[in-house]
Design brief:
Number of strands: 12
Largest sheet: 10 strands, mixed
Radius of gyration: 18 Å
Shape: globular
Helix content: 25-40%
Strand content: 25-35%
Distance between the termini: 51 Å
Number of helices: 6
Structural class: alpha+beta
Order of helices and strands: HEEEHHEEEEHEEEEEHH
Length: about 250
């Protein structure tokens, strides 16, 4: 009988140059940007034919869900017409780090680990053992790309790097679980002739990995998109807030 313990599973790691990483992220984020713009299309009739199902409409915020391409988890979307906040103000808090702070208070590390371009960065998010089950001992290595479209619409695309690429860039800690943030992010649209209001769309697709039931993950994912109000207040309180700080 062989009583030896099996070797622990380790994720393969890829070591890539900054140039290769930049080209990959730029290519991958193009698809994410198009998905976000499609989800925010204000000219579309919201009749359910686009796959989004409205779950609730509370205090001016529409919460919807749609089955993701993988079929395992749902994508969740919130949309809100924000008043007394310009797109330029709100975009200062529409980023991966400020969103993660709203997801769970036990965010023990949130920092930019690599700048690939002026509008393209790699971020590490790590939650502690006292976080909610969805985030407990989870960490995420994500890219963040910020773009201004031709019509002035502001887009922030956020998604995890492939596990092998993330492992080569920043090895996973032994006691942590590396989750995946699928195509997610923000779209902030300026309203015609109104500098002090904007339409904000926020999309989240989260796979926390580990042994969590899918229904449990989907139920908690619903809550993740309900952070717009808190960020709106933050943007109002700090109109000159600069969001890109490494540390």
């Amino acid at each position: 009988m062989n009583n030896s313990c099996p070797a622990p599973y380790t994720t393969r790691s890829w070591s890539v140059s900054d140039d290769s990483l930049r080209r990959y992220v730029f290519f991958a984020s193009e698809s994410c940007i198009q998905e976000l713009l499609s989800a925010s299309d204000s000219n579309r009739e919201w009749n359910g034919n686009d796959g989004w199902k409205v779950l609730a409409f509370e205090d001016g915020v529409e919460i919807s869900k749609r089955r993701s391409g993988s079929g395992s988890f749902h994508a969740f979307r919130s949309r809100w017409l924000l008043k007394s906040v310009s797109p330029e103000q709100f975009i200062t808090v529409a980023n991966a780090i400020d969103a993660a702070k709203q997801w769970d208070s036990d965010l023990v590390e949130a920092r930019y680990i690599k700048d690939l371009d002026e509008n393209l960065s790699i971020i590490r998010l790590r939650f502690g053992e006292n976080a909610k089950p969805l985030f407990r001992n989870r960490e995420f290595i994500v890219y963040e790309r910020r773009e201004t479209m031709d019509d002035g619409t502001l887009v922030v695309a956020i998604a995890s790097l492939p596990k092998e690429m993330a492992a080569g860039l920043h090895p996973k800690q032994n006691n942590s679980i590396r989750g995946l943030l699928l195509q997610s992010g923000w779209v902030v649209e300026k309203l015609d002739d109104n500098d002090d209001s904007c339409m904000v769309t926020y999309v989240v697709q989260l796979d926390p990995a580990g042994w969590l039931p899918k229904f449990f993950v989907n139920r908690f994912n619903t809550k993740l998109v309900m952070i717009i109000e808190n960020l709106w207040k933050q943007a109002q309180a700090h109109p000159s807030l600069i969001n890109h700080e490494t540390g």
